[in-house]
Amino acid sequence: MTDHNSAIQVTVWNENRHEKKNPxxxxxxxQGIHGAIAAALSxxxxxxxxxxxxxxxxxxxxxxxxxxxxxxxxxxxxAHHDVRDEIVERVKKRVHAGMGLIVLHSGHYSKIFxxxxxxxxxxxxxxxxxxxxLWVVNPAHPVAAGLxxxxxxxxxxxxxxxxxxxxxxxxVFISWFTGGEVFRSGAAWQRGCGRVFYFRPGHETYPTYxxxxxxxxIANAVRWARPAANLADIHPPRPExxxxxxxxxxxxxxxxxxxxxxx
Length: 263
Ligand code: ZN
Fold this sequence. Notes:
The protein is an alpha/beta fold and 263 residues long. It is 22% helix and 24% strand. The chain has a domain at 8-118 and 185-236: Class I glutamine amidotransferase (GATase) domain (Rossmann fold), CATH 3.40.50. The strands form 2 sheets. It has a 9-stranded mixed sheet with strand order 2-1-3-4-11-10-9-6-7. The protein has a two-stranded antiparallel ribbon with strand order 5-8. The radius of gyration is 21 Å and the shape is globular. The chain starts with 7 loop residues before the first strand and ends in a 38-residue tail after the last helix.
């Protein structure tokens, strides 16, 4: 069982490419987007935070790192295709086994998000002078704890519907933009034993991850997405033959079938 008194192990993953190529982004995020998110989370109680980036060996996501991660945060955009498929598969298996995953902004088009959703995950977008207003549509949800009924980001990239995702298990935020579009900007799913939360804001040329409300959402999402238990222990990784709990009536076909455990 996961010890709920122990710190939640958080890994903040970022492709960290815009920061290296665009001085405007580097000025907003001198420690990288991952550094800004990690700094905000480190100020929270009960979280142990580390970072990982695309250019590290195995993208910083070795099996040991993932096995020690309760919640993984993902920011990617221009380098989705540089993420190796075997690492995506490794992350997906950890989510199925119970690890939480928080996908941010342009991560909607990452290999891992598309693999977990099973849909195109496409959307409409515009990089202009839109304001974003986020409405809390499920104020009782743990991810909305401590937030006002709505809050704004003075400038953000617009994402508009239709957002090609499977219907969320839970919807927490809907965004409105100056240009008139709306978007399901905070959505939750369970995949296997793991919880997945998508949170829309965070275009790299705006200081979105320095915003207190945005930091509150991400911290809430981390606490919400932590594994409920060590579910890898109780969730079989593959179909397994199962002995009955009670005696069964005589089975005339038993001789033709392999014994339990030999399938
Ligand atoms: Zn963007």
